[in-house]
Amino acid sequence: GESVGLHLPTLSVQEGDNSIINCAYSNSASDYFIWYKQESGKGPQFIIDIRSNMDKRQGQRVTVLLNKTVKHLSLQIAATQPGDSAVYFCAENSPNFGNEKLTFGTGTRLTIIP
Amino acid sequence: NAGVTQTPKFRILKIGQSMTLQCTQDMNHNYMYWYRQDPGMGLKLIYYSVGAGITDKGEVPNGYNVSRSTTEDFPLRLELAAPSQTSVYFCASSYGQPGVGPQHFGDGTRLSIL
Q: H helices of B22-108, where?
């Protein structure tokens, strides 16, 4: 099965509120994590990444939190806007003797309610 | 800066036909990837390339072939199209191996095999 998964397949949030999208991963050796946003009919768009030596990283209106103890990753989006409606994926990179690859989760659909 | 460009955007094939999905990137990235995305599933790696002249299989390579004659181009070929190959195909590129930095995606080719 998937080594990266999401707790909630759908999430609806009122415009202007904050949203939190969660992701669980199973490989404790994973050292790099990425969040992508995918709008309808488009390819995944890079949002933010974090390495395993960090607990938190902030971007513009987005924050990623990494809890290695429970193997959990979250994406926080502040002051959501209609343009934030999309599917959000997390991905993890597991070291594999130079043969690394990303493993992608199935995605959470975020809907912003006007 | 166009990033990763995929053509065509849509295609319908009959069973047994062949076609080539084109992918080009203008970021001078060494690494390039082909994924397929099926409904409700995470992206699955078909083939990847670490540089011109070097390609390798991913998780789901059967029924596909690739070549990498230049840094910029990474075409994916379907020789005998089958209904199971109906999917959305994404090409991606990255500066280094997966654990170094994010992969950047094109907007996909939506392929139906009838």
A: none
